[in-house]
Amino acid sequence: MNIAKHMEAIFLAVVAVIGATTFATAGTPLQRSAPSVAAATEAAMPVVVVSARRLSAAEKAQLPQ
Q1: Residue 55 contacts by C-beta under 8 Å, 6 or more apart in sequence?
Q2: CA-to-CA distance for 62 and 1, rounded, in angstroms?
Q3: How high is the pLDDT of residue 2?
């Protein structure tokens, strides 16, 4: 059996199966999982503040490579 010769039929069969499963599962309700721990705690997100000045071009040139 030459698969390349029958590729169109294989593609149409796969599309038909996928279409049938979408219609079959369309009526089932979604299962919702329990809320995650991060969402339930509502704690403030830690923030890092860097309070340093930027180096000028001359200061960068003095740094060892």
Answers
A1: 63
A2: 72
A3: 76
